[in-house]
Amino acid sequence: MSIRPMRCLLAIAITAVFLLSACASSGSVSDTGDDVLTWSTGGNFNRYRAFIELVSETCPDIKLEFISYTGGNNTGYSWAQMRADDIPDIFITTQILDEELAKERLVDLSGYPFINDFSTSILDQVSIDAGVYLLPISYSMYGIFYNKTLMQENGWEVPSTFAELEALCEEIRAAGLIPGVLGTQLTGGPFSAIFNLAKTDWLTTPEGVMWERSFLAGEATAAGMWEDTMEYVQRYIDAGMFHTDPEDRGDPQLILDYLGNRKAVFCTAVQTVNITRLPDTGDELGMMPFISEDGSKNVYMYSPSYYFGISRRLMEPGNEQKLENAITLLTLLFSPEGQAAFINEETPCVISVLGSMTAPETSLIYDASQALRQGRAFPMTYTGWENVLADMGQAYKEWFRGKNAMDGPECIAWMDRLQQEYLNCSDEFDFCESTADFTLEETGRLIGKALGSFVGADAVMVPLGEFHEDGTELRAGVTGKLYAGEINTDVLSAVCPAYDGEYALMTMTGSQVRELAAAGFDAEGDGNSFPYLLVTRGDQELNDNTEYLVAFFMNGYTQETADAYSARICTGSLRLFLRTWLEEQKTVSPDGNPWE
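Request: output the structure for the sequence above.
Response:
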């Protein structure tokens, strides 16, 4: 079956253009053969839209090709591309996962003028052997939210030591209120709450940094290091700061309900808000740091919105104009005008990386912004902990809720147990191997075979991603390529659609199947369809009048199609199907692994 071309140009402004996705190409995404710069959307094109419009207005000669990716692991996929030497010209990621690889694949930005407006503290955080290869465009700041208006009405001062916090919590309880609520819908909330308190003490010291590296490598234990922190956490619990919501609602709902309805004063949430006043009462929000015991190390946390870099390919002969355009793009990105495209009244917890752009003293994150520049803010813990973070967070959550006899010492034991189990089960995490790089179409065909064989279908209709002129991106299909190397759960989540948990079965004739495949998947109902890839058992040709059972991804079909062919919705995880199938295959290749 042939798929219609996935690349075309469309005009924006006068001469700036976007190219549609070239993900289906088996070559490098940077190999466009002209001065067009490639840029992966990461499923967040709308967050870049204002900046792209600024590019078209101020740099109309720069041409951009957007490569649409909407899979379930944006960070993992960006580094899979890096390992395969298949990154876009403008490389974007949310974490610096491999410093050595960044040095090898990216341009050193330390010599370009736009870096001069970064504070020394920020440059120190991203420096790799005296070079700078990835720069954050902004930082999301995290602290403890509180109802500022309610505090002022009661004459309560923002505490600066734990003794002051403890005394205030007693007054809050006496007033019939909950001192503080903690977000637990995602187990990353409890995990971060405990690690953030550790950072008010030892975890950010040289000894703590060395312990973290050793622990992640299996050369150190939590026992013997975490006892004081866990005792401090218990004091927060006893003070009433870590009340958990029985309904496990998300952090935005907790802030609106508990703080907005004056049920609680504080909210510890791994969440940036898009409001500064609570809508029903007009109460003003405040944000304070995580309080250390004696107040000498009250800290905020931060995480970069995105890191930007430039592919080293642009330094090769023949790419001089592309490199010049890329530098022009980053120069605009790291200008006040470029920063303003990402920071507005709907992002009150986001701060610019530029030293010349300071938060107003009246803003929600003024103190946090000062902390970042003064070295009183630290990165949110994530990198290196991905495989145990959720389970550790679950143990902490049970402690906060008084379940399963969980307490501080037991949580320490869980930390050691979980990390050792992870390190001792490497074979479980690498369950298959890809012998070669796949194109997008070949990846879709592989996933289609897994689904079809698992559910007993005759054919599978696989939606394939591409970038559309209006910025619409496909979330119900395949947008990431499989690369050569070991396959684990991270790789699996990178190539699978973001939607999971259901699939649909429909019965249709061969002619109807081919007609639908040719029409594509009109996901938005606007006539601008995404291509369907038809995968059949044994690569069989479908007879016009013979009926076949056809499988579809979750949300990978229109309601009109579902009604026309009496869709049967079934519960089942595509990721689980694919993993089980890959474990059986042992190795996979673009031209192998037939679906019999």
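The mean pLDDT is 91.
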